[in-house]
């Protein structure tokens, strides 16, 4: 059975995600689509709109056969580490391909850019370092160094535009696969409809997850998002709305975050992963002075620190994820199974002896520092939503969908 892997967050799952799964299957002629999905906290430093179990069910009802969890240590990291963790999991699960959505839509420009940066590695890294020293953010420095490197090339080969968010992630996936000498082949499909960060719901069938979340938080209703979601996803979100006091967001999590910042103070905050250069003092003052997340963020935002970078620091503060804890986690060490279809279960039964990492379907039977972090993060996510039930990860078993929808 040929398997293709994709890296996802599904925050929430929408029509564009369903198209990605469909086209990935078609493009690579795969029988099985495996998604490695972030847990309850995401790469841009945000609590997930709904938890990993609800998002797993959405995926399995809309074209995904197996969902593995991307551990917190990778799911909340900057793009290279995020990509490294995801690719290692897909490689360990014996995927034949990995397929990502991109603004470019063709794999050759990615391969050309990989070759160019390999040839110009020393100069490229020097340009990044110099740009950072001039006070611009790391992502901006990388983009500037890349543009300058491409402009010096006179071969007229097409290169990928690394100012686009999906292109950037795709490029990191390819770099990660190369670093581990993976046998997986890379494939890409063009992203359709709204842009990755587009906040508006336009007159079309595909909107960004950002736009869908923004629509809900502005109107407090899911009605305007219905056309952009598969029917099963809309019903699952309606059910979530009935069972919970809120959808996941920093707005609802901020009272707890503020308490943690004020309780711990700058000295303790300085030990939290990614907190650096004295920004813990600014965080403390902002928490003292602001009782809303927007007010807090507009105080601490600067040219040096992107909104996403700050949110990642806040995620680690919220979960208590320290530099010391992160130093102990270097690579994925297991495959945390969140769900499968009937076809997915058949694949697991046929291939699991060939997997490079053990499958974890019951957390009580497996011990690992990274898994402990995921369980801890899930508990804190539940608290942020006002839920009293803890240790759901111990109680839930992998979701099983008999027929792929």
From TrEMBL:
Example GO biological process: tRNA modification
InterPro entries documented for this protein: Rossmann-like_a/b/a_fold (IPR014729), tRNA(Met)_cyd_acetate_ligase (IPR008513)
Keyword Cytoplasm: yes
Pfam families referenced in this protein's UniProt entry, alphabetically: HIGH_NTase1
Enzyme class of the recorded protein, top EC level: ligase
Record protein name field: tRNA(Met) cytidine acetate ligase
Catalytic activity: cytidine(34) in elongator tRNA(Met) + acetate + ATP = N(4)-acetylcytidine(34) in elongator tRNA(Met) + AMP + diphosphate
Organism: Sporosarcina ureilytica
